[in-house]
Design goal:
264 residues, alpha/beta, TIM Barrel, eight-stranded parallel β-barrel, 12 helices
């Protein structure tokens, strides 16, 4: 059996601009629906959504039939947890709250096998190697893993240049919500000063040879950040899509009921 290639990492190498959404419903069925929607990638959130390796595994399996790359965002930097997500088949990790070059370097170590890292070897038990069915797995495993670090604090911004120098970091994702809070604008990710910081940071990331990414659910803002150099943009979340559609549908029937009653 051949090595499973990382389609998302390939898109970064090819310089393609991509869009995707966060997945937080903790449902293989919801994942399968999202996988048919036409996004370039999907990201299972295990930081804010109640996910863990046991719930992430069936979601990865549900998406596998559709060929869409699936990332995972773990809750923290724990190398043991990262090992588990890699073991169940995640090839791209978006790690939150990275604030120093030392943290970024430690994450590079966590996603790589020795001698370049500290990832534990247990392929007979792991989906990533298809339980040792993948020929030459160790020859290609490290190169197919994609590490994205998330900058979402003033400290992270202050140390950005040093983080960008860490070999093995493939991309840097800007989280506007936490960044806004750290800059003094809690609940205001669209504040002009927050947007100005993001606009200035995206080309710096690209200039350092890393892939810049950002979250922007507003279509106009997402397009603007793409024009600033964003290579991958998260444009929503399955939870928000469901809620917004449900609220709009309910409101449409309430409106029709009001109009119907007014006619009598």
């Amino acid at each position: 059996m051949e090595m499973i290639r990382n389609g998302f990492k390939a898109s970064l190498r090819e310089g393609r601009s991509t869009t995707g959404i966060f997945i937080g419903l903790v449902s293989p069925a919801a994942m399968e629906i999202a996988a048919t929607a036409g996004f370039d990638w999907l990201l299972i959130d295990a930081e804010h959504a109640p996910n863990n390796p046991v719930t992430v595994l069936p979601q990865l399996q549900a998406a596998a039939a559709y060929g869409v790359p699936v990332m995972v965002r773990p809750v923290n930097h724990d190398p043991a947890l990262i090992k588990q997500y890699l073991g169940i088949g995640a090839q791209t990790l978006l790690v939150p709250m990275v604030e120093t070059a030392a943290e970024a370097a430690a994450l590079v170590q966590a996603v790589r096998y020795p001698p370049h890292g500290i990832r534990g070897v247990g392929t007979a038990l792991e989906r990533s190697a298809r339980w040792n069915a993948v020929e030459g797995y160790f020859k290609h495993a490290d190169e197919e893993v994609c590490l994205l670090v998330q900058i979402e604090s003033r400290t992270g911004l202050d140390n950005l240049d040093a983080i960008l120098k860490v070999h093995g970091v493939d991309g840097v994702f800007i989280g506007p919500a936490d960044l806004a809070a750290s800059l003094g604008y809690l609940g205001q990710p669209m504040h002009p000063e927050v947007k100005a910081v993001i606009e200035s940071v995206l080309p710096r990331i690209a200039a350092a040879g890393k892939a810049p990414g950002v979250f922007a659910s507003d279509p106009a803002t997402a397009k603007h950040y793409r024009s600033c150099g964003a290579a991958f943009v998260a444009v929503g979340a399955d939870t928000s899509i469901l809620r917004n559609a449900a609220v709009a549908l309910a409101a449409s029937f309430k409106e029709s009921t009001v109009n119907s009653g007014a006619a009598y």
